[in-house]
Amino acid sequence: MQEGILRPHSNNMPNTRIRNIIGPVFHVAVCMHHIYTIFYSNKEKDFSKATDQRVVLLEQFAPLFFTSWNMIIQTIYFLLAMFYDILHIFSLSKGLEEKLMLYKGYIFTSLVFPCSMFVSTMFWGVYSINRDWVLPESFDEFVPDWLNHCLHTNIVVVLVIEVLIVNQLLPTFKSAFIGLSVLSESITPLRSSQYY
């Protein structure tokens, strides 16, 4: 991974002191949100009452959905961001802080941002055409509306806020593309082996 460049902030939030307070609070809140969402979506549910065969497939294949992978990637990113905030606030280790800033920028640029935008736009795009293709009404008992929005809407909202309040150390296009390619190429065989 090559050294990136620090993206300069526009006048979105000119006061660095305010940004240094809002950033850590935001990262803690997002981590709590994501961990609760993952916990709730993996909670034991009684699928035996389901009459629609697609609900059984939901139970079986949910770990393979790109939505699940994206939520895990975002959670890892925001945990790293929270850890970075702790190092930065308490000036614990400048070397580790700088490395973490590099990794954080790389993960955000190459994985978190493109994957989250893909998940949200694909889900809501297909949902607007035909809901049954992505979230049939028979799923409502197992995937309530609030959970659906946590998995497919809030992921973009937190990205927009993150872009506005945090300076990211951006990697080169080539290294970011390689990271995204490795992720997509590692998911494809796993999904294929489960479906076929």
From TrEMBL:
Membrane topology: Multi-pass membrane protein
Signal sequence interval, chain numbering: none
Domain of life: Eukaryota
Predominant location category: membrane
Compartmental location: Endomembrane system
Name recorded for this polypeptide: Androgen-dependent TFPI-regulating protein
Transmembrane segments: 21-41, 61-84, 105-126, 146-166
Alphabetical list of PANTHER family matching this protein: ANDROGEN-INDUCED PROTEIN 1-RELATED, AT02829P-RELATED
Family statement: Belongs to the AIG1 family.
Listed InterPro entries: ADTRP_AIG1
Catalytic reaction annotation: 9-(9Z-hexadecenoyloxy)-octadecanoate + H2O = (9Z)-hexadecenoate + 9-hydroxy-octadecanoate + H(+); 12-octadecanoyloxy-octadecanoate + H2O = 12-hydroxyoctadecanoate + octadecanoate + H(+); 9-(9Z-octadecenoyloxy)-octadecanoate + H2O = 9-hydroxy-octadecanoate + (9Z)-octadecenoate + H(+); 9-octadecanoyloxy-octadecanoate + H2O = 9-hydroxy-octadecanoate + octadecanoate + H(+)
Keyword Protein biosynthesis listed: no
Pfam entry (one): Far-17a_AIG1
GO annotation, cellular component aspect: endomembrane system; membrane
Keyword Acetylation among UniProt keywords: no
The entry's keywords: Membrane, Transmembrane, Transmembrane helix
